[in-house]
Give the backbone structure.
Amino acid sequence: MKKFFALLKVSVKSMLLSSVSNSRGRGRKKAATGVGAIVLIAFLGLYMSGLYSTMLMQVLSPVHMEVLVFVFMGMAALVGGLLFTAFAVKGVVFGGKDNDLLLSMPVSATALMASRVTAIYFENLLFSVFVLGPAGAVCAFMTQSGVGHSVLFWVRLVVAVLALPLLDTALSVLFGALVAFLSARVSKGVLGQNIVMALYLVAVFWFAFNLSGMIEGLAANAAGVKESLSWAAPILWMADGIMGDWVKLLLFVLCCAVPFALVVFGLGRVYRKAVTAFAARSARSDYKLSAQSASGQKKALLLMECKRLFGIPMYFWNSCLGLIMLVAAGVAALVMQHDLRGFMAMVGDALPVMPLAALVMGFCLSMCVIAAPSISLEGKYLWILREAPVDEKSLLRLKTGFQLLFSVPCTLAAGVCLTIALELSAADGAVLLLAMLLFDLGHAAFGMLVGLAFPKLDAVNETVVVKQSLAVFLGMLVPMAALGLCALLYWLGGMVSAWAALALPLALLALCAAACVLILAKKGPAMLRAL
């Protein structure tokens, strides 16, 4: 048991924490990175659960169908957990660089498999707590039938929260094993992963755009909706169990625990063979001699960045999801412009339209973190890039510009769509685009700076760099904080004049962009040489 907990400690650190190259302040930086990953997962769970649980309770509470809140939030926790961990399983469970070392130790392969799967369970548990917990609080606060007013309700809810991640983890490990198999056996495995993620996002966007109609349908026929969800029997058992049916709660716990145990002990028996086969297959290289066309240095480096971005699904979807959301929001606003204008006319001057559009665009753009993990993704092969006949300034300029190559076109497209949909004046539209382009420039330069300041060249896999590194966390959080400061300056400037309300946020964005670009140009090459 002592060996298992030691392995579990290593696996949890690999899943939630990240080490850094510098020895000074190592513990503080690791702790900050782990806290950052936890905060991000908690924020997403709280936001989604708080918003949609409240919307659902407003409709379901009058008809005493609060059980459907737990059905939908349970599905959200299950699908969200799969999104967070399914692709991470490939790297954490089957693709760890320390597999050879750990498998050579006097511990069974099943114990190693169990420790790594348990680390995945902890991340799913974290998301489950922050999805089902707020749903229970909303039900207890808004109910008209006394749901949540007894201690046993919270006991059953805790049991459900602990059990659901077991099923989530089992599905994630099976899906991750399939992804690892395809990546090792099929040359187009990356394409398959991207297609799966694209289909998932299409389903999420469809759900978001049709949510209001679904809620209206719930109000008219809540009982019928529950009957139509018989295909999701375990989730229905969980919801009924939370509401008071102990037999169904026990069935749900067994439905979660049995697959988890089968996955751990079943895959544990072949874990050594699977890891060896995946590693041997991925290490194989077939070389073909052929003529190579001449190409410039910048073109070759740009092609290398493109191959990395589109060749690592975890990198692409985590870094470009904000841009996809930005373009989708612009197109949706253009398609539903009549409804949007009606809403704006209803709220009147209570909400300033152009600043609100800028905040939405800025929030999506802040999630674009292509530059921040760029240096760390070079890993132990950074020296090869450093030996190339390219000076440090050109290399940093290209890596920073690579993010702008994606963010600027998406910003222009979404800005034009929102300007048309919201009927903004030419001046307001120009200010919106100018502010967002300044944000793009500052964000890209800042991302490269934090990537140089908090490098992670010894990551176990790309997943740790993209999902848990301190550079990525700061690359999203600090720009979001800057947006909040811009909103505060707009409010303060509005007390003086309309001109000051626009000038102050623009001045802040311009100052931040100029400072980041200047610091990167002056200090960046030396920081890169120090690595």
Notes: DSSP finds 23 helices and no strands in the chain. The CA atoms of residues 21 and 452 lie 11 Å apart.
